[in-house]
Amino acid sequence: MRVFGLTGNIGTGKSTVARLFAERGVPVIDADQVARDVVAPGTPGLAEVAVRFPGVVTREGELDRKALAARPQSAPILVALGDAYLESDRPRNAVEPLESAARLDPGSARAQLLLGTAYHSLGRKTDASKAYRRFLELEPSSEFAKDVKVILAHLGG
After folding, report:
1. What is the DSSP string of 34-68?
2. Whole domain around residue 49: which residue ranges?
3. What kind and span of H or E run contains 129?
4. Does any domain span residue 3?
5. How many angstroms separate the CA atoms of 128 and 116, rounded?
6. How far apart are CA 109 and CA 70, in angstroms?
7. Between these two residues, 23 and 7, which has the higher pLDDT value?
8. Is the pTM of the predicted complex or chain greater than 0.70?
9. What CATH number should be reported for the domain holding residue 104?
10. Do residues 77 and 68 lie in contact, with contact meaning Cβ atoms separated by under 8 Å?
11. What is the H or E stretch that residue 28 is in?
């Protein structure tokens, strides 16, 4: 069986193409919808989040994403979310959780590395250079340091 990933920027027709595939019997998995379903009201996923992060569920029983993002201990979750967006070729979506993670945990080298990657993918060279340099400050002997230095050289930073 062949598997295809459907990616693209906002407004490029991903939903339309996915709908056309579905109308022709092609199974479609919407990763955004899956992520929402996992933490939907009444689900075990939301219950687990509520136990680990008290105060992030609204009175209506929904996940308060902004409240979760504001918690220092949520930084690893935000880094993982940003990484997932990058893996699905969605750097625009990755920036917000990665910036939040970097604010919440300024010592997170992984957040800086992924943020540099997201910025670089979006053509934000100055921001990418800054994030990559911060990564090197945090982990100068990382297994990725050599690659990051090459990227910085190409960015002119």
Report:
1. HHHHHTSTT-HHHHHHHHHSTT-B-TTS-B-HHHH
2. 39-70
3. helix 125-138
4. yes
5. 4
6. 19
7. 23
8. no
9. 1.25.40.10
10. yes
11. none
